[in-house]
Design a protein that fits this description.
Elements lengths: L4 E3 L2 E5 L1 H6 L4 E7 L6 E2 L5 E2 L8 E6 L5 E6 L6 E6 L2 H15 E4 L3
Length: 108
């Protein structure tokens, strides 16, 4: 019997304190919508870690022109970095990253 799964979803929240310091830029933190049920495909469908080791997708820009992204998963070189020209591109990439890497089991 195989485990049926669906893609995980990510939710973004804006960091208001960062926005005060950098009015043209911004910082958005993406976290899994249901981390307790999520499984990490890169780690053979092991449960996702919680707390400080929880997966995170962080988007930062000081001036609003270039968006820096930091993706953090579990072990095996879990932290990755990328650059994007717009916030929309960065957020879309985060949604695809979460759907590709993390899965939610579905009851049959």
């Amino acid at each position: 019997m195989t485990l049926k799964t669906r893609p995980a979803q990510i939710v973004y929240r804006e960091d208001a304190a960062f926005r005060v310091m950098h009015p043209k830029g911004g910082r958005y933190v993406g976290r899994l919508l249901n981390p307790r049920a999520a499984r990490d495909k890169q780690c053979h469908l092991k449960p996702v870690l919680r707390g400080k080791l929880a997966p995170i997708y962080e988007i930062t820009s000081r001036h609003g022109d270039i968006w820096y992204v930091k993706m953090r998963g579990r072990g095996n070189g879990g932290t990755r970095h990328r650059w994007f020209q717009s916030l929309d591109e960065a957020q879309t990439h985060g949604i695809k990253w979460a759907a590709r890497r993390f899965r939610i089991p579905v009851e049959a």
